[in-house]
Amino acid sequence: MKWLSHRAERQFPSSPARISPRQQRRNARYGKRMAWIGTQYHRLSMPLSVVFLFSSRRFHPQYGMNWRRKWALSLRLYRNWRNVRTGISYKGHLAIAAKLLEIPPSVKGAVVECGCWLGGTTTNLSVICDIVGRDLIVYDSFEGLPAPVAADNMKPEVKGAFCGPIDVVRENVRRYGVLERCTFRKGWFKDTLPHHTEPIVLCFIDVDLKSSMHDCLVNLWPHLTDQGYVFFDEYTHLHNCALFFSERFWHDYLDTTPPGLMGSGTGVGVGQYCLGPWPDGTPAIQRPTSLAYTRKGFNGRWDYVPDEAGQSAPTERRV
Ligand SMILES: C[S@@+](CC[C@H](N)C(=O)[O-])C[C@H]1O[C@@H](n2cnc3c(N)ncnc32)[C@H](O)[C@@H]1O
Question: Would the pTM of this model clear 0.90, i.e. be above it?
Fold first, then answer.
């Protein structure tokens, strides 16, 4: 989750805060005001988000998504999003729904979520899965983050952060989603993911640590169907986005070229107001809360080399 480094700093400050009580009160008032404006923004922009993201001719006709059903789904997703805490925006949930509604039912495969915390996204994924007739497989430790390794570049204190006990997640999904669609696989990714067998049409990864992202991609990408999607939360940190453009990673671990990442970079996410870079001095009202995604078959490789331009192989056409 993008605000982890911020949050961890608040929970485990490296140096004692040196701001006066007056300044603290001001900050608190400012935070509340911005949160209120944020809530109003989401509420007011909700209908337009639905119109923009659900006006698609690519939704498969077999799902029968006329506008009455689209509004019913949107309202349910919105209410759930308000009811169960999650770091993913409502628009992010709509974007995932839109992509799942495009995939033809003839393409077999499950939806996989890696990192569910309290089940805020799980709940909405289960609702969407029920419409498109797919299973939802949820991987998590249900004990929060593991201890970071050195290359994660995180404080050891983040261990255990975002702990969502499995009973809490199940109860949230039971109350607001479709529990029957879900299978929960508890454990550390390095132990559980290598045993994954089912084809995947869409995988949602929100796991904070580089080591966890690595485990998710290395183990699950090979199960992704042709043109299957990977949605990714950590899109505001350039070094995390770099994973999707790293020729070394994709060559060494997955024997392919990097797929790139849509909506990535400094947080100019779909319909959001973040200008980045995150988190340096970003006003609270510009908090980045969207998602990025890639798709099997995308190609994010830079292949123009001036000296070799005359001889290089034909490049992929822009799509
Ligand atoms: C930021 S939270 C996920 C938030 C959630 N996607 C949402 O929408 O609210 C990160 C989750 O990843 C899980 N996680 C991270 N690394 C893991 C690992 N190596 N093995 C198992 N679970 C892990 C944590 O337990 C936590 O639930």
Answer: no
